[in-house]
């Protein structure tokens, strides 16, 4: 019995989809935000170290901190200079990265962006400035960084094509252009800050707060994570598209949780960059149980793929498994890949919403195994450890098993018939 040809040309459709998505993968503003925020991970880990030491559940350590006040002061200084100044670092990192993409000298636009951001966030125009450089102004920091660099890039382009005059030396043209543009941008920033009733400054900030609340909701969390998985199934890294757009939101929520915890308040935001340790534990699709199944398969090819990727799965790396099995462009294995992500996101969000688990607020290296990362990132919450084990092994193991069995039978049949082991039977 011959297989009927499909009425749709799937390779052509997928090729066209990837061609349309290619510009998004290299979009300079999204890439600058992604790279800039990623470069700040060591800064957040340093601030998280202060949180870990402050909440270390050891009585001798707690007694020593109480007796030696300088330890608490140093921990507070480390935390305030990292988490407390997060938006300021974002302005520097994003404007620097975008200036490099625009092939202009980064010192001028980066310094100008920092100055504008400071003018827009200070409480009072006095010598003793009280600034708000925390995550509450993250949206403003991104807007200032992107717009300032774009304005500087236009100025540089105009200066390069402007006609030279005999009365002005050639080297003075870019200097004058930069000075005039800087004064204009600073003037607009002062106007927006001093006359909020005549501008949309406060309105835009309010809209940004509402947008953060909307995108941090439970339905948005589940839909976003499922979309990540769907992109992976099509051979597109979801972090390069959705991750680039949402990383400022997720990182800002995690930093806000850390600041709240330091102040003695309960962390507010459930969906953050650290929440994904429950959703994609072991990598996208939570494929560690699949790697375990593959390592015990009767098929030599599947057994080899499982054993090669088993160790990487413990440290949240599974790109090789996704391509070796393969999962991309594979309708059978795509189903559990997406379903597991949706179930994990739903279960984890509900557990947090019911107050069973503390929202994460401590940044750690991403290579840590999921249960250890969940336990530490929530301030040593044992309930987070239990939830992580459930979303890391229990739920994925149940979902992946029947689909693995079907896929294994297909591969074994293909091997017995002498077919190509590397193709989908």
Description:
The chain contains 19 helices and no strands. It has 425 residues and is mainly alpha-helical. The chain has two domains: 27-160 and 173-204, no CATH class; 216-416, no CATH class.
Order of helices and strands: HHHHHHHHHHHHHHHHHHH
Q: Using only CA atoms, what is the Rg?
A: 26 Å
| Span between termini | 15 Å
Number of strands: 0
Q: What class do helices, strands and sheet pairing give?
A: mainly alpha
What proportion of the residues is helical, as a percent range? 55-70%
Uncertain runs: 1-6, 124-130, 160-168, 420-425
Strand fraction = under 5%
Largest sheet descriptor: none
Our count of helices gives 19
Mean pLDDT: 83
Q: What would the principal axes of the Cα set say about the shape?
A: globular
Counted up, domains total 2
Topology:
Blueprint (H helix, E strand, L loop, with lengths): L9 H16 L2 H12 L1 H14 L4 H9 L1 H12 L5 H16 L5 H15 L16 H24 L10 H23 L6 H15 L2 H16 L4 H25 L13 H4 L8 H8 L4 H15 L4 H6 L6 H23 L16 H8 L4 H35 L9
Helix pairs in contact: 2-6, 2-12, 3-5, 4-5, 6-7, 6-8, 7-8, 7-9, 8-9, 11-12, 11-17, 14-15, 14-19, 17-19, 18-19
Question: What attributes characterize this protein structure?
Answer:
2 domains; disordered C terminus; 425 residues; globular
